[in-house]
Design brief:
Number of domains: 1
Largest sheet: 4 strands, antiparallel
Helix content: 25-40%
Strand content: 25-35%
Number of strands: 4
Order of helices and strands: EEHHHEE
Structural class: alpha+beta
Distance between the termini: 16 Å
């Protein structure tokens, strides 16, 4: 099963979005790994107040199991992060599905 992964930034003061990366993973486990790595990269650049909820997600095994269950069942998963000026959306979905 191929899982498409995307990360995009949506600056609140602009109309356009900014692609932050994409990856076609060959399994749900690899897709989750990519999401975790990309989330960590984004979190490293956030102020502490905005990073705190994301740091919790990065270490929450139950949440990772839930995301993996969604991906394994053919359902997509999305994580949205915020700071004062930007919304970051990371998603994974089965190839052929509409995100």
């Amino acid at each position: 099963m191929t899982v498409r992964c995307r990360a995009t930034a949506y600056p609140l003061s602009e109309v356009r979005s900014i692609p932050l990366g994409s990856h076609d993973a060959m399994s749900p486990c690899l897709a989750l790994r990519w999401l975790r790595e990309r989330t960590q990269h984004i979190t490293d650049q956030l102020d502490a107040a905005y990073a705190q909820p994301v740091l919790h997600w990065l270490t929450d095994d139950a949440e990772h199991e839930r995301a993996l269950a969604y991906l394994t069942s053919g359902t997509g998963d999305q994580l949205t992060l915020y700071d004062e000026s930007t919304r970051y959306v990371l998603l994974a979905y089965p190839a052929g599905a509409t995100p």
